[in-house]
Fold this protein.
Amino acid sequence: DFWSLLCLRGCAGKTRVFSESLLQNISETMGNSSCASSELEACRDESAARVLKFVAIASILLAGVAGIAIPLVGKHRRFLRTDGSLFVAAKAFAAGVILATGFVHMLPGGSDALNNPCLPEYPWAKFPFSTFFAMTASLVTLLVDFVGTQYYERKQGLAKPIEEEVRVGSEDSGLESGIVPVLVKEIKVFGEEESGGMHIVGMHAHAAHHRHSHPQEQGACVNHVREQSHGHGSGHGHSHGLGDGDDEESGVRHVVVSQVLELGIVSHSVIIGLSLGVSQSPCTIRPLIAALSFHQFFEGFALGGCISQAQFKTSSAAIMACFFAMTTPAGIGIGTAIASFYNPYSTGALIAEGILDSLSAGILIYMALVDLIAADFLSKRMSCNFRLQIVSYFMLFLGAGLMSLLAIWA
């Protein structure tokens, strides 16, 4: 009797443990029901989705090639030259598109992925990781921007304060009076431009010590126009307001900007392509085709403008252009190939998507504000041309507004 009673108690305990475990598993399954694919509805159609993916690859590829090719091919055309007003206005529109991509599309996407209920509550729900990663990416981009600029300047020998001192000394040695001529130029510190601006990692901050020589904005603008109309070495040169050294320094800036900008664009293009490729819903893919084609075209235009201004060799420019144009279509192809077994709601996929989206947002926001918008809108050329100011600001807000509007559908 004792052993039978003990067995009954043991079986009852095991039954209770099993029932509690079963109820817990059922409750967890119900709680994680959102982790199942949200596309298991009437709109799911694998055959139609496959056709739309091929359409998306062709459309996005053509848009990217056209966007990046216009500045590269058209730089020898008068109306598409990188120093023309039309190019500045179009670049402002593209900068608005990139800024809205970072703020409206990438940053919320990273936040949604890292706050997804499929992820464990700790630590993902206890800290705003998306904005932290975006901030970190912006600061790292600043560091890379600064270090890269110094590296290329030293590599190309653009920091020449010693040479200028030697040149001034040799000129003075021939003068018996010993009086230093007024033509002696001040030694430039890192990033200082002859036009009176301080070029600090893409931004132009007017130097205070230079303002006394141009007390009125009109006088500064007249001087700027005079610099544009005269060459550095001859009266009919093709200088655009800068000396040879400043042209080289500006080229160095565009080398760094183009490389960092391409890094930010490529990093989020992979995620965009994978997201479209793994989707089996035509309702999701259709609006993405138009949105991504629009987005790819103007991102390509901004990147192509930076590459063109950097004056890369033809082979290097072609490699960068092809790498940009192929990234999103390649991501779509990879996503299509792994769609049968890839779960976008798995823990690893959500974490990777959220981190990459947040990092891309930080890079794009920094590049749009500092190296694209501030570098052009705070320049003397912009401040001396009221019509260009109006057009550029209009195009900037138009690009940001249209790209933000696309968030309704994609």
